[in-house]
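We store amino acids, tokens; thus:
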Amino acid sequence: MPLDANLKPPPRRTVRRLLLLVALVSLSWSLYQLPLNRVIERRLCREYYSIHDPSVADPDGTVREEFCKVEPVQQGLGRIQGVMETTWVVGDFLMTVPLVTLAERYGHRPVLMLNLIPRMFLLAWTFAVGYFDQALPLNAIMVAPLFSVLGGDCVLNSIVYSLVASSTDDDVLRATFFGQMNAVSSIFAYQLGPALASASMQRLLWLPLWIGMVLLLLAVPVASVLPSTTEQLHHRQGSSLDDGLDDMTPLLSPSPRKPSQSFAESVASRVRMAISIVTSYPDNFTLLLCGFFLTSLASSDTKLLTQYISNRYKWNFTSVGYLLSGKAVFNFILLYFVIPALLRWRRAGPHRAGHAISGQQKLDDWSNISCAHICLIFSVLGAAAIGLASTIWLLIPSLLLYALGIALPMFTYSLLRSPAMSPSKRDIAAAAGAGGGVITVGSTAQIFSIVMLVKTVGILVGAPLMAVLWVYGVGVGGIGLGLPYFVSAACYGLVIVIFSRMRENIHDPIP
């Protein structure tokens, strides 16, 4: 397939719109994190000192942030954050299939707009609990994550990444798009977001929350101009994607169904289809799903990074925000410029000449797995170094080392479109001939929905696990504070073993 066919304006325009949507949502979410930590900590701190040492409080009843780094306050903060994160993920996970079914019936746009409502409520409710502290108890803040039943990160990422994956069949261009998506998410969630939150919090604690609500309102018109279905995207691109999708059954695009089929039956049908795909696909696909689960679990440690730095090094949240912004600059340069340039160089290299298409595909698979291995090694070393860093000057290079592993999704998502991850025509024919049933071949949207569900399960396990480890580490103190990062390093190490097994299943591509 000529590369020019994949460079038409429509897919790039769609990806740019998706990038803008991700930027707005990521920035609003990042603006929510720092004020949330401070709102909870401030309330806990006031309650603690009203009992143990009322003289610490100022005349207006507030307690300065430097007095709030005591063990009981930080343990309470960790517990509430863990409950909120788990509640958000549970609602998101339970409603992913029903909301995906709604997207199949009515298109992506209404589901994406619905996804903005719980995010808006989180920001507004955090402001309400913090501002009306005499009227609302602190535990009321845990109500907001319940609204994730209207859609959370799993639903959003399922739609966004399936549209990105469907935008081109070129491996390098697709990996570049994934890298751009991760880069934009990184710069707005971890660079611009913390910096803007820190700067605005210095003027007024509630200002980041108000800015976040405005950004979510701006996301509404962006979502309204996206392709309603993946079928529309394919139609705009002509026949460039048809060869790879002929045998696929769409999940997020309109598909034939019985007129009398109820919504509940549609949901049950999608669940059965997902189970059929997972059970009938090759071992490589199962191994890749295990890798997604473990990396998602391990990455839950990033939610604790603000609390970790603030508690271990006695920094206030505003200073932590600026530090995380500096780290994210490195992430952005790596994902948006360095890695895509290396991928283009690899694609144009003379070592690819002369290989058959199947050999080139195996070479791509090996290359993706090898690059994933490198990212995982950086993640193991970086997570362990963060846990061991006893001073802020040791933490900074540890954060940069950890950041080198951020390119991992570029290669793991690219592997999802590999023939080695799906049943071959021979396997399908053999299963049908043996009378063993039909092997279900999923669409790009179906596969990405399954992956996002698996990643959500990883977060569902990781969020409470990291919260428990953090609370225990706060009690131990010192190096015990790094316990969540040691567990993350172990999870990343296990993924290296899993990917090694996957590479053994793909024979040497060099003839």
